[in-house]
Design goal:
407 residues, alpha+beta, 47% helix, Dibenzothiophene desulfurization enzyme C, AcylCoA_DH/ox_N_sf, AcylCoA_DH/oxidase_NM_dom_sf, 3-methylbutanoyl-CoA dehydrogenase activity, oxidoreductase
Length: 407
């Protein structure tokens, strides 16, 4: 399925002086609706276009944008708590919004970010982003085979990108291509640009509604003013991927919380105690109580480590020189540890959910299996064994994490 019926402009009116509290209040009923329909929508492959647009219009992506730039001026923790809440309602929606949140975070932390002013206006008008550099070209990871052929006033770009998360929701697409002389150009263009095709072909076991399909570019015109070339200047804090990894951990924390929500609701409303139980109702069964208590503890642990890591990421902001590098390495290790705990908490919570009931809890109509499938799929972005090994090296020897963007 190829999506082409979109407009060239972001949908929505410009936000006026948003606040963190105001955004939270506005999105609460949207998240409640998403949570109620998540299982059924996944079964029917029904994307939440209207509610995602409402989240964007409510300013969920500008929580971290500074007040001076028209945003809500929140912290990294404020943003991450919103992500956890979205993932608790529907982890596929949270994952689909990741490129938009990444764009907003880059703006918040980097005053010289490319296209900063333009992207602030886009975000404040409710625009959504998709960005990917992934290719299946047979080359080394990160190699670029998408071509950019020079023409008057710009380039014609041809190639195929994969894992375009959030692509069908998006207003703008960001990626990279190689020119004839091997220069890697980066650009952001409207998704309605002629020759750009978003293909709904993502087929993983979980996160089925993240819209992480392919994007095909057939001689797409990219204008010079839409292009930039990344400089080779090293940053004081080279761990620029920490927020992206923290975001994934927040999604896992939301999945663990969703498993807890479903466990509580099922026990209260549907479960029956087994024949030899000492309780007349499942809510009084000591083993059911123990199971729900463990799910709650794991969800709590995931949320706590994600919040602590968010504070570590935020603490790097504004630092320069050696202090920035020291704080950046610490934050990267904090994020790695949070990722491990959040992943394992989500997987275990999703498994324990089935221990609060009998055979009926496995009914497909309930869709409870999606929590494990979603957690497992999101966990495969990069191996958590690497995260623990890198953290161990840091604590034992002070060895810094790799600067690959995965820490």
């Amino acid at each position: 399925m190829t999506i082409t019926d979109v407009t060239d402009l972001p949908r929505g009116t410009r936000l006026d002086r948003p606040s963190v509290a105001g955004v939270r209040t506005t999105i609460a009923p949207i998240l409640e609706r998403l949570a109620t329909t998540a299982g059924q929508r996944e079964e029917q492959r029904d994307y939440a276009f209207d509610d995602v647009r409402r989240l964007a219009s409510a300013g969920v992506a500008v929580i971290e944008i500074p007040v001076a730039d028209g945003g809500a001026g929140g912290s990294v923790r404020d943003t991450v708590e919103a992500v956890v809440a979205i993932a608790r309602a529907d982890s596929s929606v949270a994952q689909a919004l990741r490129p938009t949140f990444l764009a907003a975070h880059q703006i918040a932390e980097n005053p010289s970010a490319p296209f900063r002013a333009e992207n602030i206006e886009r975000l404040l008008s409710g625009a959504l982003f998709v960005g990917t550099g992934n290719e299946r070209n047979g080359g080394a990871s990160g190699s670029v085979s998408t071509t950019a052929t020079r023409v008057d006033g710009g380039y014609l770009v041809t190639g195929t990108k994969f894992y375009s998360t959030g692509g069908l929701y998006a207003d703008y697409f960001s990626t990279q291509a190689a020119t004839d002389d091997g220069t890697i150009i980066r650009f952001t263009i409207p998704v309605a640009r002629e020759g750009l095709h978003r293909i709904d072909d993502f087929d993983a076991v979980g996160q089925r509604l993240t819209q992480s399909g392919s994007t095909r570019l057939d001689s797409v015109r990219v204008h010079d003013h839409e292009v930039f070339v990344a400089d080779d200047v090293s940053r004081d804090n080279p761990w620029t991927g920490s927020f992206a990894q923290l975001y994934l951990a927040a999604v896992q924390a939301g999945i663990a919380a969703a498993a807890l929500d479903d466990a509580i609701e099922f026990v209260r409303d549907r479960a029956r105690p087994i024949k030899h139980s000492t309780a007349a109702a499942s809510i009084d069964d000591p083993y059911v109580r123990e199971t729900v208590g463990e799910i709650a503890a794991r969800a709590q642990a995931a949320a706590a480590v994600v919040a602590a890591a968010a504070d570590a990421v935020h603490a790097v902001r504004g630092l320069t020189g050696a202090p920035a590098r020291t704080a950046g390495a610490h934050a990267a290790v904090q994020v790695a540890g949070a990722g491990v705990i959040a992943i394992e908490s989500a997987l275990r919570s999703a498994e324990l959910l089935f221990d609060v009931g009998g055979g009926s809890i496995t009914d497909r109509a309930l869709g409870f299996d999606r929590h494990w499938r979603n957690a497992r799929t999101a966990a495969n972005h990069n191996p958590r064994q690497w995260k623990t090994a890198v953290a161990g090296a840091y604590h034992l020897t002070g060895e810094e994490p790799p600067t690959t963007g995965l820490f």
